[in-house]
Amino acid sequence: MARIFDVKVNGKSFRVEVEELSASAPAAPRVSAPPVAAPPSASPAPTPASAPPAALSATAAGPGAVTAPMASTISRVLAQPGQSVAAGDKMFILEAMKMETPLLAPASGKVLEVLVKAGDRVEVGQVLARLG
Fold it and tell me: Does the predicted TM-score (pTM) go above 0.85?
């Protein structure tokens, strides 16, 4: 038994016919309107030949470096120079796409320096602090 439905997609109305299938008889769908073309996609942004100096990997940044895992804004700085932290302690709160993400200390140690402040934009791999 076929059923007819009116469906709106992006403000355009389409009439579709849907046939109820039994478990043993697969059938192809029938559409009474022409298929809608996908909107043209924007071409991807060119990839830079080399990463900016701020986007260093944790290895290149040196031992004890606490690096940003994503491009974001520093929402809060929770660790201060001279403070002792344990592995897993919250050091920063990062904000990206209206979501807050805690950045945890990768290891135990003493905070030697904090290189960012609340409100700073950071890139992936940028060194935020150093532990010793």
Answer: no
